[in-house]
Amino acid sequence: MLLSLEWLSDFIDLNDKPAKIADMLTMSGCEVESIEDIEQTVVFDLNITPNRSDCLSVAGIARELAAITKVPLKGHVPYNIQDERALNVAVEIQSPQLCYRYTGRVITGVQVSESPQWLKDRLRRSGVRSINNVVDITNYVMLERGQPLHAFDLSTISGKCISARALSRDVKIITLDGVERAISRGTLMICDKKGPIAVAGVMGGLHTEVTETTTNIFLESACFNHASIRKTSKALNLSSESSYRFERGVDIESVPVALNRAAMLIQEICGGDISKIIDVYPERFIPREISLTTEKLSRILGIDIGQDDVEDIFKRLCFDVKKSNGRFIVTPPLYRGDIEIDADLIEEVARLYGYENIPAKLPDTQFAVIKKSKRVENIDLLKNALRYAGFTEVINYSFVSKDALNILSNSQQANCIVVKNPLRSDQSLLRTSIVSSLIQNFLYNLNHGMPDVSIYEIGTVFFNKGENLPDERLKLAALSYYSDVKRLWREPANLFFQTKGLVQSILDELSITQYTLRPSKEPFLMQDLSLDIWLDGLEEKCGFMGMLSPDVIKKMDIKTSSSEVAVLELYVDVLFSDDTKIRRYTPLPKYPAIERDISLVVDNSTQALSIIELIQAYPDKLIESVEIFDYYRGANLPEGKKSLAFHVRYRAIGRTLTEQEIDTLHNSIVKHVMEITGGSLR
Amino acid sequence: MKSYTSLQARFLEELDLIKNTTELSTLRAKYIGKSGSVTSALKTLTELPPNERGAAGKAINEDKNFIAATLKEKEDVLKRIEISNKIASNKIDLTLPGYYKKAGGRHPVSIVMKEIVDIFASMGFAIEEGPEVETDYYNFEALNMPKNHPARDMQDTFYVDTGGLTQNASAVDSDVLLRTHTSAVQIRVMKRSAPPLRFIAPGKVYRRDSDITHTPLFHQVEGLMVDTDISFANLKAVLEGFLHLVFGATLPVRFRPSFFPFTEPSTEGDIGCFFCKQTGCRICKGTGWIEILGAGMVNPKVFQMVGYDPELYCGFAFGMGIERITMLKYGIDDIRLFYEGDLRFLQQF
After folding, report:
1. Domain extents in chain B
2. What is the mean pLDDT, run by run of 10 residues, along chain A of 682 residues?
3. A19 touches chain B (CB under 8 A)
4. For residue A550, is it within any domain?
5. Which residues of A touch B340 (CB under 8 A)?
6. pLDDT tier for residue B89 given thresholds of 50, 70 and 90
7. Which helix (H) or strand (E) holds A147?
8. How many Cα atoms are found within 13 Å in the side-chain-facing hemisphere of A184?
9. CA A467, CA B164: separation in Å to the nearest integer?
């Protein structure tokens, strides 16, 4: 809200500099976001919180400053209207639960024209456009007193009767902005004999607008149910200065005051005669009494404030206050509708006492044993592991487009959650996969000239399970790509095995040893270069890894020479589930080991793992470990063959082995392996 | 000065001419090898009369030891020279970069999030989490923001359809949304656990907003401390302590009144603008202060909602946006950089 100090001085005389006034307002809850010089006058941009509708006016801010500074408000002559004419309009409230009070006056013989300069100036500095003198005055009084007003051209009101009522059926009305709007049943409208003439509290109708030719007007000042106004404003997607104030609540007691103020200004500026007032106020509002104990006040604030000081604060705020037995009985004025319970009173005391005057004091609580979050720790562990594996963390939006999901496979969106009101059409689904987001990041970086891309993200994915809330699961995904740009040092492994190694190191990092990697059938991965990750004992696989299939690469339409992109995705929570495992150390061996190698030429179809398992399964307790150290295909080998070589390490627990016994054992193992695999020595 | 035997002197003369380890081996063989002169001399000892053998043998052994030791010395010197000659002749370019797997970057938001979580953990706050897709009840209603409350304007909300793509009208529930703040976690935790409570809830939140300072997804850390005797003075001390740890102990901190439906009294915490040293700049909009967090004493209405006795329990809650703190810490001027996945940006962290 814009507030010029020049206008403020109509209500209060402050000797302080603008910066000081701004600081006082900010430190008592009306934040001054900026101080600007506009046309030789200082204008504050105030951020009024939704609870303080009483501050949405020049008079309201003046009242607030009076309470802060103890400087009295300037006295004003009451708005007494002389020579009132008879009122020839009937007013009725048909929906008293939506319209609490409705007042009005008729002003006849007005001359609608341009506003005087001072009026235009004040409106402009408050950010309001000048229209004509009558409309400008209604806006002026709203800015000054916080009470929205509306002027109708009396000649357009059918039957000279006005009613505030909830619609019994849907209607259409053209509002002042020239837009035809569909208003649904139940909306509070201002109606004449024929039907609706204004959307109550939101915007008037075009048909009853005050124009240059208007001579008689009906001036409205009312108080509506704030929730109802908000609902209407939301439904119409139409917010006005008027609806903004009504939905936050206006001062029901100021309704006739603002009416009189506007009527007199209109008479002064536009001429005309003012009728008697009509004031329909079916159920009088009664200020509420709230009790606050001094014990609670001190306990909540953590400081003892003298009872006299507290009483003084309430009085400065114009709250009625009685003291009795360590208790204040406080009655705030009706314009402070935000004060409902004792906590609200505590805030009033605190903010006028000054938050800065409440000393900081550390809590005096017992020593707390906190359960450290293993999950957060594990996520951190993974992030560090990935970082040192060369991967950079990205964070993507949780929403994706159909296309982004479909780049993987058409079935991806089957159980997606749909965002009903997305900002953009390509952000309309909640993601079920993170790889799809990483592919977008990959393309972005490729297009921005990055030669290599290694990225990962840990984030939530969402699956619709037909219940109110979806299934939310934490996933880790990574994507890796190297262009075939020449490099100084060679990577020791190709991309597939790097990625497999990453999966293994992640599982290692989390002390997971019981798992199996099996060929994957994910449709977006290359059939022979992909693996699913299964934790032993689980029904559901916990992830996959592999090279993106040529189909996906083709859909991505990338312009690089290398088309190898590796991805992996893991359900992270499954990996974290076993945190009760106790780790025990293995005693160090007392006797030396003996190592022998086996070097074999076998069929291409023979798997390295099967040979390792074969050796490990050999019925001899002296085999400590088997490790592959060479893999070769190519020249010097027969067609369809490969060479594999293994280190086998032997050790006895209680003694030193002899070379001879190991020679014998090793030879029989070699023979055994050759027999089973059909391989030959290299 | 040390005097040499004639043999030793002759050996030293020859040694002087030796230029490499190969020549040295020849020299060694000549003197102390199997058929070297010293070795042969030892063999001839038996030809001497027994009473002379002792002295002669001693003299020959001294020669042998001297020669062996001198040879060893010379060999060490020659070897060192040969190794450095070899390295020099290989001409290895030591300016080539070393090989290592270059570490990736950690997302700046994730770095700052961790820092904040660690600080609160060190103050005895547990870590809690809640769902990102929430019901209207947990996100608004239970936090004293009933439907049609103007405070809902502060948080423009994404609604989701948990009916899926089937367009099944009966499955559509307008009350499901993407949480607009982590405050929703407060309610979940209070509903399942009794006081005292001291926890933080970090996580993603969503608002329908997108410009240079807003993204539709961002991160928050929410905090709650509830007991029978927790005061506004405590709130100030804990949050002041926190801000000093994040931004430095000398930074001015102030608390001013504000409004949140779920706290009363409410406050916003500002830090002195460190870009202009509080003289006024674009970042602090000339005020000298930067808003950094929202907080307040838990509104008794919220306690009623979760079934806590508001006369018995009190406490404070706070919340802060991580992107904002991250931007201030690193001087990042466009929030959208966080979500573009641009490696040129992310690898700087």
Report:
1. 6-90, 109-346
2. 94 93 95 88 94 95 96 85 89 96 96 96 94 96 96 94 94 94 95 94 94 95 94 92 94 96 95 95 95 95 94 96 92 95 96 96 74 82 93 95 80 79 90 92 92 94 88 95 82 88 91 90 91 91 92 79 86 77 83 94 92 92 93 87 94 92 93 91 83
3. no
4. yes
5. 444
6. confident
7. none
8. 7
9. 10
Whether residue A333 lies inside any domain: the answer is yes
Residue A364 lies in a domain: no
A381 touches B: beta carbon within 8 Å: no
Give me the residues paired with residue B205 across strands: B218
CATH code for the domain of A45: 3.30.56.10
State the total domains in chain A.
Answer: 5
Q: What is residue A580's predicted lDDT score, i.e. its pLDDT?
A: 63
Contact A132, A119 (CB under 8 A): no
A523 with A612, same domain: the answer is no
Residue B101: per-residue pLDDT: 84
> pLDDT for A622-663, tens place per residue?
999 999 999 998 888 888 899 999 999 999 988 999 999 999
Question: How close is the nearest chain A Cα to the Cα of B84, in Å?
Answer: 25
- Domain containing A615 equals 594-681
Residue of B nearest to A437 (CA): B341
Tokens of A261: 């103020």
Q: How far apart are CA B270 and CA B239, in angstroms?
A: 11
Q: Are residues A485 and A403 located together in one domain of the fold?
A: yes
Residue A546's nearest CA partner among A556, A532, A559 is A532
**What residues of A are in contact with residue B314 (Cβ under 8 Å)?**
299-300
Strands (E), A22-94: 31-38, 41-47, 90-93
Predicted pLDDT at A556: 80
**Co-location of A437 and A569 in the same domain:** yes
Of B38, B69, B41, B64, nearest in space to B53 by CA: B41
- CATH number of the domain residue A675 falls in: 3.30.70.380
Please tell me the distance from the alpha carbon of residue A432 to that of residue B46, in angstroms, as a whole number.
98
Query: How far, in Å, CA of B223 to CA of A369, rounded?
Result: 17
pLDDT by residue (tens digit) across A55-72? 999 999 999 999 999 999
Residue with tokens 């208790």: A327
Instruction: Report the amino acid identity of residue A139.
Output: N
Q: How far apart are CA A125 and CA A43, in angstroms?
A: 7
Q: How far apart (Å, rounded) are the C-alpha atoms in residues B184 and B129?
A: 10
Given a contact cutoff of 8 angstroms between Cβ atoms, the answer to whether A654 and A591 are in contact is yes
Write out chain B residues lying below 8 Å of A450, CB-based. Answer: 343-344
Q: Which CATH number does the domain housing residue A406 bear?
A: 3.30.930.10
* CA-based nearest residue in chain B for residue A412: B165
Please tell me the distance from the alpha carbon of residue B172 to that of residue B168, in angstroms, as a whole number. Answer: 7
Indicate the residue type of B47.
E
Strand, coil or helix: A201: coil
H/E element, A537: none
Which residues on chain B are in Cβ contact (under 8 Å) with A444?
Answer: 340-342
| H helices, E strands: number in chain B | 11, 10
Pairwise CA distance, residues A263 & A279, whole Å: 14
Which residues in chain A (496-515) have CB-CB distances under 8 A to chain B?
none
Hey, are the CB atoms on A387 and B106 less than 8 Å from each other?
yes
pLDDT value of residue B174: 57
DSSP, collapsed to helix, strand or coil, labels residue B254 as strand
A82 Cβ neighbours under 8 A, 6+ residues apart: none
Query: Per the CATH hierarchy, to which homologous superfamily does domain B109-346 belong?
Result: Bira Bifunctional Protein; Domain 2 (3.30.930.10)
User: Who's near B155: CB < 8 A, 6+ residues apart?
Assistant: B180, B181, B207
- The amino acid sitting at B171 is A
Determine contact, residues A442/A399, Cβ cutoff 8 Å: no
3-class DSSP state of B53: helix
